[in-house]
Amino acid sequence: MIPHGVKVSIAEHSQDSQTILFFGRTDGYKGLDTLLVAMEAVWDFEPRARLQILASGGGGGYQVSDNRVSATWDGFSGKELEAALSAARAICLPYTTVSGSGVGAQAYGSGKPILASNLEGLRELVSHEELLVKPGDAADLARAIRLVLSRDYPVRPIDPDRTWPGVARALESAYADVARSTKRRPH
């Protein structure tokens, strides 16, 4: 399997940050509703925790009135995302289903800790097993968020095979294999 390519842009390490970042679309399968419920439990543990939402495609009916949530619903620029990645303690991918994630690839490329649902396509982005959560389980997500806020997870090294040049090499190799097998077949 050839992974989604990653642009490596290691974000500053933010050990003092108490901000969890969610970015991308807000479709139901993205689990934003689960994250918002989980944050209520997190705030009981760590009232200084913050949630930053950078959403594209509108808020999908989410009503957020807590001043510990910063939400942009109608899109964001690359510079805004870079700033949010630098300011975040961790990135949250609380999906309920997934087949691949461009957001996950961007999160991985930042080197920041990722908390994510224990789903194929996300598992390999998470560097610490205790940051994997049951899909749709707000209590388990709150547990993982509390962990990431209370521990210092180092910047993750990026697997070179997941970078765009690594993906290009894998594709070249796959196409070369197909071309060789095609040449050997009589027509």
TrEMBL record:
GO molecular function: glycosyltransferase activity
Keywords annotated in UniProt: Glycosyltransferase, Transferase
The keyword Lipid biosynthesis is annotated on this UniProt entry: no
Superkingdom per UniProt: Bacteria
SUPFAM superfamilies, sorted: UDP-Glycosyltransferase/glycogen phosphorylase (SSF53756)
Protein name: Glycosyl transferase family 1
Organism classification: Bacteria, Bacillati, Actinomycetota, Actinomycetes, Mycobacteriales
